[in-house]
Amino acid sequence: MSGIITRATATTRSSPIPPAPQAPYQGRLQAAKRQLGNEDLWTRATAPIALVVLMVVFSILNPRFLSWPSVTSMLADSTIPIVLALGATFAVTLAGIDLSLASTVALGSVTMGVAYNAGLPMWFCAFVALLTGVVVGAFNGAVIGWGRIPDFIVTLGTMSLVMGVGLITSQGKPVQMPDASLSFVSVHGIGGIRYNFLIAIALGIVLHVVLFHTRFGMHLLAVGDNTDASKAMALRVPRVKLAGYVICGAMGGVGAILLTSYIGSSQPATNTDYLLKAIAAVVLGGVSLFGGRATMIGPILGAILLTFLQSGLTLLGVSAFYSPLVIGIVVIAAALLMRGHK
């Protein structure tokens, strides 16, 4: 009898206890929450929803806001913030930041002017600016990756270093570059949409493919999500960081080319407004500040949103002094919306 009781007790203990049935609506609710969390709909929808609302509000306040000449002009103005935001996305995806982006633009513009003064062809001058950005990005990536120094400290130091090199090289003086081939992309376009904006969109498509459809992109997302786990999987973390910051720096070089083309001269002074807009566009675009999650369309829309916001305030007669204030509020609000998402 005791053997029978023992076997019965053992059988009872080994039998799994079935989970309590859930109400149908609770199961659907949890599934919906998981779906929202997986796709990050709230954070990714911030920029497009805000852009639509902004366009509606400003068009009501000033009907000229959405006129075709006004729209194409604002899209052209958003070109450099878009390009820099695309570059900053790679740094932020690595759970880092590049504070030297605006200084890289200035130095690239200076080296472009130096090459122009040396009598070099315009295509080579543009290549020099691009190479300048790559070198700055490689320096940042190498020190961050192999030196294991926080990205904030490295890029803050690089920002000052690059700014100093640009000012010393140019003596603080711009170089006039009256070349038709240089201004072509900023003056001409298709249907009123200028080539510089189309170039920025093309870069966004290329970088989307690089980030989401290549092995390197998968490695970069993995490193940004969890560096220790990436090391355990034998990923070469320093090399991945180097490549990510090289792309970021290269976008700074492209920004230098487009800025010089837009203005018609080299610009040795660092415009920190570009850095603010680039980081703001990344945050508004839904790129995780914790790394490991990114999008390319989000930062593009974020940059367009900020440009439209600034232009709309100008059309309404608001002083330009209020623009940094408004952009700062928008960035903090977007960051608060993203809190808890990783």
TrEMBL record:
GO cellular component entries? plasma membrane
Q: Where in the cell is it found?
A: Cell membrane
Query: How does the record say this protein sits in the membrane?
Result: Multi-pass membrane protein
Primary place of residence?
membrane
GO MF terms, alphabetically ordered: transmembrane transporter activity
Q: Which UniProt keywords apply?
A: Cell inner membrane, Cell membrane, Membrane, Transmembrane, Transmembrane helix, Transport
Q: Does the keyword DNA repair apply?
A: no
Query: Positions of the region Disordered?
Result: 1-22
The membrane spanning regions, by residue number, are 41-61, 82-108, 120-140, 152-172, 192-212, 242-262, 274-290, 321-338
Q: Sorted alphabetically, which Pfam families does this protein's record hold?
A: BPD_transp_2
Could you tell me what this protein is called? Autoinducer 2 import system permease protein LsrD
Please report the organism this UniProt entry assigns to the protein: Nakamurella panacisegetis
